[in-house]
Amino acid sequence: MTTASPSAPASVAPALLAAVSVGVLTAVQARINGQLGVRLEHAMAAAVVSFASGLVLIALISALTPAGRRGAATLARGIREHTIPWWMLVGGAAGAFTVGTQSFAVGIVGVSLFTVGIVAGQTVGGLVFDRIGFGPGGVVAVTVPRLVGGALALAAVAVVLIAGDGLAGVPVWMVILPVFVGVGLAWQQATNGRLRARVGTPLTATLVNFIVGTVILAVLAVIVTLVSGPPATPPGEPWLYLGGVLGVTYIVMSAAIVARTGVLLFGLAAVSGQLVASLVLDALWPAPAGPGLLVEAITVVIGLASVSVAAFWRVRR
Q1: Contact 281, 115 (CB under 8 A)
Q2: How many other CB atoms are found less than 10 A from the CB of residue 184?
Q3: Measured between alpha carbons, how far apart are the two ends of the chain, in Å?
Q4: Dist. CA 117–CA 106, nearest whole Å
Q5: Is residue 138 scored above 80 in pLDDT?
């Protein structure tokens, strides 16, 4: 006989709340990077600024803390002895893709539209990566609650795409691209969790991410500059340069949390935080294009429902 448990185990609740806060930080970072890209008139330059500032911060933290130094030593030994495979070191490529996309898309379509595209990608990616056991928690079964939660997340995307009157004139690729960003984020979270398990600290996993991401973005920025010209004069507002700090914060948190929640559950909780924060940001600071606040509010409710179902409706025989 099938019964339902009304809540998740208490040990998971703090991790879920932390995952929601990761989503809030992600939404704020997306808005900052998007605005910096608009002001510089150069998306890749904005992405390099964000990643490079984050790299400096995480490098200092890693050098000044015992955990950071131990993790770096473990990483160097693992690379030298081939106990840490190369694919655990390239999670920063997904981070570079995310920040680069934020820098030119969010400033045009707003945080909400960007977020709902990520919802679809993280939902699909989380289901697949959990099912094949790619995350640090091993194989996670695709249960009915997880499928229902994922379907609700996709429904939120459908609501925006169908009912969003403000999307007229927005290129199709700008709507689809965040979906691939979401898949990349699900893969990055799982990869960082695996690397964190090998080196013993999320600091080192984050440091590796920022090194790889900064190198990739710097190369792309040089190419874009040669083709399209240099960026505009840097703006004077200090808050436009906080994207890297926020990135360090939520990547460290992600690497530590995903082992407790699984890739899909982490993604759904983080997306809920993103949706709520995106709604607030777009209400206070509208972008040129967007689905409208009413549609955004509906997607927030659906997104929260998807997390509630996946997290708290535990089906057992």
Answers
A1: no
A2: 22
A3: 6
A4: 12
A5: no
3-state secondary structure of 286: coil
d(CA 131, CA 143): 10
Q: What stretches of the chain show up as alpha helix (H) in DSSP?
A: 13-40, 43-64, 66-80, 92-109, 111-131, 144-163, 172-199, 202-228, 243-261, 263-284, 293-312
Length of the chain: 317
Q: How far is CA 12 from the centre of its chain?
A: 20
What is the DSSP pairing of strand 314-316 with strand 3-5?
Answer: antiparallel
- The identity of residue 122, as a single letter, is Q
Measured CA distances, 114 to 44, 47, 110, 178, 214 (Å): 18, 16, 7, 6, 22
**Among the ranges 143-147, 200-204, 281-285, which has the highest mean pLDDT value?**
200-204
In the predicted structure, residue 72 carries a pLDDT above the cut 90: yes
Amino acid (1-letter code) at residue 220 = L
pLDDT digits (tens, 9 = 90+) for 151-172: 777 777 777 667 655 555 666 6
Please tell me the distance from the alpha carbon of residue 107 to that of residue 37, in angstroms, as a whole number: 7
Nearest 5°: CA angle at 27, between 25 and 30? 110
The confidence score (pLDDT) of residue 277 equals 85
Q: How far, in Å, CA of 147 to CA of 197, rounded?
A: 27
Sign for the CA dihedral angle at 28, 32, 33, 34 comes to positive
Higher pLDDT, 304 or 101: 101
d(CA 112, CA 278): 5
Q: What interhelical angle do 43-64 and 66-80 show, nearest 10? A: 100
Which tens digits make up the pLDDT trace of 192-224? 888 888 898 888 988 998 899 999 999 999 998
Could you tell me the two tokens for 88? 């655990």
